[in-house]
Amino acid sequence: MADTQLAHPPTMIEPPYQIAQARLLLTGVAFNEDKVREVLPPGLEAVAGAPGIINAFVSGNSYPFGSYTGFYLSVDVEGYDSEDGSKARYMFAAAHGPQAGPAAMM
């Protein structure tokens, strides 16, 4: 199967998704707190200073999507800490492509 072909038709496929041979560029940032408040759902609060991540990536292979590229923006949020105290992240923007399948399922 060529990299641009989907392993499955573009319908909602339940996680987990497996990604292999990915190249990631993760950048830690501090977002504008006022702008982050505008995009968070009601009841969700960003950590003071609105720290977050910009992740740009290329997947070498993945299931169920095949290879694709993308990015996402996420901000650390209060109230959903992991057992080790790490903050949860809320993904508030993303794009995937150029294949239509992954973008349609996200």
Primary descriptors:
106 residues; mainly beta; four-stranded antiparallel sheet; two-stranded antiparallel sheet; 2 helices; 6 strands; 12% helix; globular; disordered N terminus
Strand count, sense and closure of the main sheet? 4 strands, antiparallel
- The fraction of residues assigned to DSSP E strands is 35-45%
Number of domains: 1
For the residues shown, what is the average pLDDT? 82
* Number of beta-strand segments: 6
Span of the ends, CA to CA: 22 Å
Instruction: Please give the order of strands in the largest beta sheet.
Output: 2-3-5-6
Helix content: 10-25%
Low-confidence regions: 1-6
Approximate shape:
globular
Q: What order do the SSEs take from the amino end to the carboxyl end, as H and E?
A: EEHEEEEH
Radius of gyration: 16 Å
> Structural class of the helix and strand makeup?
mainly beta
User: How many helical stretches?
Assistant: 2
Give a verbal description of the structure.
This protein has 106 residues and is mainly beta. It has one domain (19-101). The chain is 12% helix and 41% strand. It has 2 helices and 6 strands, in the order E-E-H-E-E-E-E-H. It has helices at residues 33-39, 100-105, and strands at 18-20, 23-30, 51-59, 61-63, 68-77, 88-97. A 4-stranded antiparallel sheet has the order 2-3-5-6. The longest helix is centred in the middle third of the chain and has 7 residues, at 33-39. The two termini are 22 Å apart.
